[in-house]
Amino acid sequence: xxxxxxxxxxxxxxxxxxxxxxxAERVRPxxxxxxxxxxxxxxxxxxxPGAGLRRGGxxxxxxxxxxxxxxxxxxxxxxxxxxxxxxxxxxxLPSLGLVAADELGVALERLxxxxxxxxxxxxxxxxxxxxxxxxxxxxxxxxxxxxxxxxLVARARERGAVLVQxxxxxxxxxxxxxxxxxSRWEGIEAGHGHLQARKVRVVQSGRGEAxxxxxxxxxxPGPAGEVEVVAAPSPVPAPASSPPRPRRDRPLRAVS
Amino acid sequence: MxxxxxxxxxxxxxxxxxxxxxxxxxxxANRVVAxxxxxxxxxxxxxxxxxxxxxxxxxxxxxxxDPARDARAFEPVAAALDAVTPRVExxxxxxxxxxxxxxxxxxxxxxxxxxxxxxxxxxxxxGVGDGEGWSSPxxxxxxxxxxxxxxxxxxxxxxxxxxxxxxxxxGGSAAFLAPLPLATLGQPDLVDVLxxxxxxxxxxxxxxxxxxxxxxFGALGREVWRLARGLDPRxxxxxxxxxxxxxxxxxxxxxxxxxxAAFLARGLAEELHQRLWARGSACTRVVIGAETEHGxxxxxxxxxxxxxxxxxxxxxxRWQLDGWLQGSARHRPxxxxxxxxxxxxxxxxxxxxxxxxxxxxxxxxxxxxxxxxRVQGLLGTGSVAVPEWxxxxxxxxxxxxxxxxxxxxxxxxxxxxxxxxxxxxxxRLPIPSPARVHAEPxxxxxxxxxxxxxxxxxxxxxxxxxxxxxxxGGPWVxxxxxxxxxxxxxxxxxxxxxxxxxxxxIVPADGPARLxxxxxxxxxxxxxxx
Lengths: 256, 530
What we know:
Mean pLDDT of chain B: 83
Helix content of chain B: 25-40%
Radius of gyration of chain B: 31 Å
Low-confidence stretches of chain A: 1-8, 236-242
Strand content of chain B: 25-35%
Shape of chain B: elongated
Oligomer: heterodimer
Distance between the termini of chain A: 71 Å
Number of helices of chain A: 6
Number of strands of chain A: 11
Radius of gyration of chain A: 23 Å
């Protein structure tokens, strides 16, 4: 059979292969432009391809069928980059909860809020912001013309800015699409406790390097106020964690 | 090098067309950057906040900081000096300098040159003032060894002794500078340290051994030490730049307005900066040149105390274009500009810039504040806001939004840090906070299983457990869980501002969790845990 013939063909000697790999490693540029990424929180690294927000890329965040959590997830996505020194502009989000932004880790000293522009001015405002900001959190609630959106995406790609779109109504398809399909609050019952922690299921789809769908369960936020992963992403079965070994608080003691 | 400095007092005020006997001040990022003599008499000084300045002088005319306007108005003055010397250097609009060696010999000595320069400038200023409300500013001239000493000589000439010209004899700069205070160096941080070491005047600093100053305060220390001794800030071993560093751009069609030319200016400045950077150099003096369709050559030198960055070069290029193209008809070129070039005039090794260890890069905040300025231009100044912490119990007022116009985005803003709020504010909502806080609360209805409206009693108890809710007249949804009510009674001692509220967290079967507030018997959704 053909496939059998191919498999028996002797390949180049192993030593040559390693030499070649070494050479390829040496002549490789340090970073390719498409590999430049803004950092994300450790818990979100499984959610976005390459464990970071690709510069020039777009991410759409939405809740499926009225499920909450999209705004929190968008804030959590830009939090680490903002802490690392990137400026973030929020456009057309007059109801953004700034205390929540601070709790999720966004550096408020590098956050700027821009009032929702008119449909006509939207394109030029967003273009001006792309020049100066690394991350743009956008809402299309008041409507965005498809041409404006296309131009903005092209400009962001050129300038290396990241666009995070919150909610629906966006005319262009994003590179990475994050949908929250399930959300459950913990710590609150009928008349007891208070909202403490939220478990959400995020389904990621998209195109290019994000084409392989993934599903991640997140604490947004967890009981300690941090964003954490509840379980490993589903295509890879979660490794059975060994039960924690009992800690010895006292030193060993000789017995008879 | 022996220099002559012409200083026009309060130029930003004069350029704005406000007479100097009217109290006026120019503000940038809510702080005074320049004030008129009338305003100073009322106690308005530089770095004051606007509110404080207006408190001291209620009739204060508030002017916006506009370097382009200042430069535009100053261009005729710089052009007038072309009759005295082939090359003038602009430091800032309002102050111009040139080396005296050639012109001084031509006109017969420093005094003669200074007098001639002054009369040329005064004549030019009189020509500018054809509009209403124009008042010619006092013009002062200083001549000394080194630009720093000459600049101070011009300012000392201002110092109320009625002199208009001050010539420091050759070699006398150090003695002239010695009694002046250290604050004239314009390095507040360093001057503060030196002050605490017991150094008060430039003479005190100049008396220290140079190597010790260098060892203790580094390159900046050496620079101010050299200035205090009446020397040029850097040793004059500056390499002549090779000609290939000149960058130029053709404008087709020729530009007779500023906008298209200024658009290209940015790229040109970037290119020059890149070329210098590639050689490990930076420039402190740049020649801006232009050629018009009719073959006219325009050229102007701009100087800066430190190395010019790419945006700084672009700014100066834009100001200069403004000056050329929007000046009065007499000074304007007769045709559109067809070619622009930039040539570095004084090149020095780039000292490099120490980036913040944790990525706090000044360049990114510069970029952001530029973008913010553009958006303000498009949407109005109130359209861009930045968050600042305030103490409060309410998620909506815990952080206030401050207009970006009122703050300097490139500086540290302690107000944006949580540490700003020191008091505990008991009665705050437990964390996590809602990710959406509605600017306009949405009316809502909450009912129990029997369909009766849920109320909160005077003792802070619910009349019955909530079973269903409806937001903004929408469909009824089942209530899965709730917490509260948490009563809140604020400012009960003041009848006008007293508020009684009760807050309730509700998780509906469908949709995000909500924060509901009952006030005056009505439920409102004030925030959503989105």
